[in-house]
Amino acid sequence: MVKIILNYKMLLRQNEKIIKIFRHHRWPFIFQTILTILILIPFFILLTKAEGWLMLKLLIPLKVILLLLSFGIIIYNILVYWLDKLIVTNQRIIHVDWKTLTEKEVHDIELADVQHVKIKNSGIIDNLPLLDYGIIEFQGGADSNRITFMQIPNPAQAQELINKLIPYKEKISKI
After folding, report:
1. Which residues in the chain come in under a pLDDT of 70?
2. How far apart (Å, rounded) are the C-alpha atoms in residues 73 and 89?
3. Cβ 107 vs Cβ 113: under 8 Å
4. What is the pLDDT of residue 126?
């Protein structure tokens, strides 16, 4: 049985408060959903054209299977989109990364351990408010202590927020 954590307080420590929860930008998700629909449309057309030469007993189950498969893929994408998140608290950064509906990874990094916050954008497209998303990466003290969150909305604003939360002593040592 998969335990889906919708209550973020289960991930929190004592005296830890959520500052901001980031989810993926909605446009890559919308593009992926449209692409899925466009890929499946030819199969629906093919089944419609096959009505003349395919037996009705076989045609109806094929249409039902294709319809269920379509909805299943779209619902799967919605759930992974919704459950995957980056949680910024007053003590650390937590990345809840759903690989599939049955597999998730939770990574965290203490704010005091964050040595570098890096963002990557697509270039000119990022100047459009509708498509302002990118990648944010947090580097800790060790090379293995790294969190990468893809398709974050307004990556520069997220970087600014997190830089403000990093303890003052760490900012001085970076200068």
Report:
1. 1-10, 123-127, 142-144, 168-175
2. 33
3. no
4. 64
Q: Are residues 102 and 166 in the same domain?
A: yes
Total tally of structural domains belonging to the chain: 2
Query: In the predicted model, what is the mean pLDDT of the chain?
Result: 82
Q: Can you say whether residue 154 is alpha, beta or left, with left for phi > 0 and alpha for psi between -120 and 50 degrees?
A: left
pLDDT in tens, 163-172: 998 875 444 3
> Model's pTM, two decimal places?
0.76
| Residue 125 lies inside a defined structural domain of this protein | yes
Q: Which residue is it, tokens 């998969």?
A: 2
Q: Which residue has the tokens 């650390």?
A: 92
For residue range 122-166, list pLDDT tens digits in order. Answer: 766 666 777 788 899 998 876 667 899 998 998 889 999 999 988
Q: How far apart are CA 146 and CA 114, in angstroms?
A: 9
Structural domain range at position 129: 16-23+86-174
Looking up residue 92, the CATH number of its domain turns out to be 2.30.29
- Cβ-count burial 8-18 (b if 16+ within 10 Å, e if not): eeebbeeeeee
Strand ranges for the chain from DSSP E:
18-22, 85-89, 92-98, 104-110, 116-121, 133-139, 146-153
Bridge partner residues of 96 (DSSP): 85, 106
Report yes or no on 9 lying in a domain: no
Nearest-5° Cα angle at 30, 27 to 36: 145
